[in-house]
Amino acid sequence: MTQPDQPPATVDLASCDREPIHILGSVQPFGFLLAVSPDWIVTRVSENAPAWLGRPVEDLLGLPLDAFVDAEAIHRLRGHLQTLRGPDAVDRIFAVRLLPDQPPFDVALHLSGPAIVIEAEPSEPEHLSAGNLVRSMVGRLQQTAGYDPLCREAARQMRALTGFDRVMVYRFAPDGHGEVIAEAARSGLDRYLGLHYPVSDIPKQARALYERNWLRIIADVGAPAAAVLPPRDPEGEPLDLSLSTLRAVSPIHIEYLRNMGVAASLSVSILRNGRLWGLFACHHMEPRHISLERRTAAELFGQMFSWILESRQREEEAAQEARSREIHNRLMGALASGVTGLESLPDFVEELAAIVPSDGIGLWVDGTVSLHGATPTAEEFAGLVRFLNRTAASRVYAVDEIGRAHEPGRDFTERAAGMLAVPVSRTPRDFLVFFRREVARTVTWAGNPEKPAGLGPNGVRLTPRKSFEAWTETVRGRSLPWSEVELRTAEALRVTLLEVILRLSDSAERERKEAQERQELLIAELNHRVRNILNLIRGVVTQSRANVDRPEDFTAVVGERIQALARAHDQVTSSNWGPGSLRDLVLLEAGAYLGRKADRVVLDGVDVLLEPQAFTTVALVIHELMTNSAKYGALCDSAGRIDVRWERDALDHLVIHWRESGGPVVRAPTRRGFGTTIIERSIPYELKGEAEVRYELTGLRARFVVPPAYVRAAPPKQAQPASREPSPATRLDGTVLVVEDNMIIALEAEEVLTALGASAVDMAASVREALRLIEASRPDRAVLDVNLGSETSVPVARRLAELGIPFAFATGYGESFKVPPDLGDVPVVKKPYGADELLRAFP
């Protein structure tokens, strides 16, 4: 993987973890370095500086900076120097005209001991607007859900920003080795996703530099470095280049990259809590230099990704802690409601296992052993407790490989490989121990991790590996590691058991009584609701029987009314006995009872929510109205319709209007059945509202008024986004080349093409990059933006036509764009385009 400088070739392996990393006194050739004293006298110069400054190194050393640098440039440098804060602060200034009448430079400025280090490289004006670009990239990150999709999207965005052939998200494990957890690469390259890399690939000193310096670029692995002169100051000290943007790397690292077939690399740190969590590792198969402005955007994106990742992980940890805390509190309440001594702990094994996920639990209380699940035997557990009593003072003790710390633990690895021990009393301690089984797993390494060193001309030295082929290793004897959240949860459990349960506090007893009172109140409320429901059903059965002659008709009527009650109850209980939507109620009743006729029920009104006690009443009324309409009213033939309209009046009452039209002639009923009674009396009686029903010849009219106490405004429903998924009958396959100089549009096109079935999408922002990708790995089809800034994509189109590869132009010019005659009939899609337009372009 890409990394900062490793120790030079003569460093002994045994000293690597002790000695500070050697900072090479040389810089990469795409820029130059000046070091000046606090009084702005040049003290050191990179040997390639004369190529830009036009003066020999000897003439520059000891010269005041204002003797050859423009006064306005020095003014800007001094101003930015004033803003540096913190020991590792670096500032960047773009398009600075250091020399009069000469092209501008991009400058990086930082302090190294007493020296002011000025690093300059020719400015490459891109009009990048790094802030806006990164804000857009971060916005796409924030739309992802889940940990893996977040990392994949970040790799994709970084590749689009930098243009490197391969971008990997590389995560460090607790033991120091690394793993590629996300990858975005052009087609035709080997995949590194899922490969692990040994600790020795990136030494500790290099990782320490990554925490100080977020970004590192090697533009050309084969380019010679330029030395910093003089190599040491009068006190014999070299210039510390830890924060340098141009710093060259050791021959070992260069050899490492060559062994991987990499010609250029870029790495951006990913930090969590200020510590190195991982890297964006970028590789290119040819030399590649990107401007300081674009590198700054990449660094800013890396910082933003670090904060988003940390925020996501903190949210997950907080949620996990909240779940554990909830179970923990229930356990404490249960313990407090009965015997409060440690002797009651075995009765709560399931609750304990839910607090800290485990495969087994062991309890040692006053010499009594209690084991549950996958654990050592009682005799083995006793030996383990003796070992635990020799560990450090009262604290939780966690290990994922018992046998490494306690040799007899190797005998029961298959039952208990890891443990989390919680001391729950004073010395001699009682223990609550969580066990986890062995998790044998296969780790795929990029080469053999056991061969980090070799014999060279200077003896044993760090030697980069020459093989990166997959090498598998089976890891045994270890469990899943214990997370920081689990350790904090175990510590909270220890404190509680010691300070709450063992001291038999009065507050625990008071909480027990309050919990009992709440339970009794809940039972009383449940009993009240059940009795109300039973009374309601009894009334439905009794009243329905009074006006129905045949048993089968009685069964049907009662069944329909109870189904209406059930549907209303489902809507209320789906929101935890909260209010239900009036619109959903009418639509549900229409669909459930009327089937295909439901589209003849027309609704008009801003949706409102009905409180549960009103929802069931209104549901019965709507059901009876629908039933009568289907039997005798507007919906009994094929021509009628129902209009249901509602609004809030001046006193905030809900007024519902029911109007039937287009059906047969309506006559008032000759007898008043239970259904009519429900329609006319239930809302006035149950809700203290109003009901008015008129049997007009043209159709039934009804008006209902529900008091405001039972009504609340419904939140606006979000519009569902249109799906980009094409119909299964039309899909693309293979590799698609997208030539587009706008990164966001290119990413959008990649998403659409992937959804259409493309197996890979390569992106290029220029003609040169597009032609390189075509020669490296021919695509199956291509989408070409006509205008690429200072050039057009026509040369790419002609090359694709020569190779017989189908392609389409994408343009924002509308009808004014004309395909060159020599290209023939080429499809043109207009921006903005989507899946349908691309499918039509590639039939």
What would you say this structure looks like, in words?
This protein is α+β, with helices and mostly antiparallel strands and 843 residues long. It is built from 21 helices and 35 strands. A hairpin with a 5-residue loop joins strand 7 (166-172) and strand 8. Helix 15 runs parallel beside helix 16. The protein starts with 25 loop residues before the first strand and ends with a helix. Residues 1-22, 455-463 and 719-729 have low confidence and may be disordered.
Task: Record the SSE blueprint.
Elements (H helix, E strand, L loop, with lengths): L25 E2 L4 E5 L5 E5 L3 H4 L3 H4 L10 H13 L6 E7 L8 E8 L2 E8 L7 H13 L4 H16 L3 E7 L5 E8 L10 E2 L6 H9 L2 E4 L7 E4 L21 H9 L4 E9 L2 E10 L7 H45 L12 H7 L4 E6 L2 E6 L4 H11 L8 E3 L2 H4 L12 E6 L7 E6 L4 E6 L6 E4 L2 E4 L7 E6 L8 H18 L4 H41 L4 H23 L6 E2 H13 L6 E4 L3 E3 L1 H20 L9 E8 L5 E8 L12 H14 L2 E7 L2 E8 L4 E3 L21 E5 L3 H13 L4 E5 L2 H10 L4 E5 L8 H10 L3 E5 L16 E3 L4 H7 L2
Parallel strand pairs: 24-26, 31-32, 31-33, 33-34, 34-35
Antiparallel strand pairs: 1-11, 2-3, 2-6, 3-11, 4-5, 5-6, 7-8, 7-13, 8-9, 10-12, 12-13, 14-15, 14-18, 16-17, 17-18, 19-22, 20-21, 23-25, 25-30, 26-27, 27-29, 28-29
